[in-house]
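Students often ask why we bother encoding 3D structure as a string. The short answer is that it lets us treat folding as translation between two languages. Here is a chain of 152 residues written in the first language.
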Amino acid sequence: MNRRNFLGGALAVALLPLTARTAQPPQVTVYKTPTCGCCKDWIAHLEQNGFRVVAHDVPDTAPYRAKYGVPPALASCHTGVIDGYALEGHVPASEIRRLLAERPRARGLAVPGMPVGSPGMEVEGSRRDAFNVLLFADDGSRKVYQRYAARS
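And here it is in the second language, the structure alphabet:
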């Protein structure tokens, strides 16, 4: 590499906005019980889709659902938090990316229960149950954010 190319490259990097030079993948903080295998599989799904995950094994996830405003009726086996939004259950990475891009006025997303075929709940050679990703707000309102059809 000659001096001109080196200096040109160094100048180009210096002119990049700081955020472009230091951009990190979005981080999801997850609260889960230590023995839950599907939680580990959901975390792997997030990591495979470009998220950084910091997982905390806790004896009970209910206090974290309450702390982050997840209604009890939407409960699942783990609670995540990303950029001020709560994530309850097996929310697909694609819907988390959409949430971050659209920034709706909401508390977060939930996939209540543990539907077979949702991320982290896949079973080799098994069906996928229909499930909805719900957008929920502080006022208790909910709406379907994305529908996933059943597959056999």
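Translate back mentally: Confidence is low (pLDDT under 50) at residues 1-21. Keep this in mind for the problem set.
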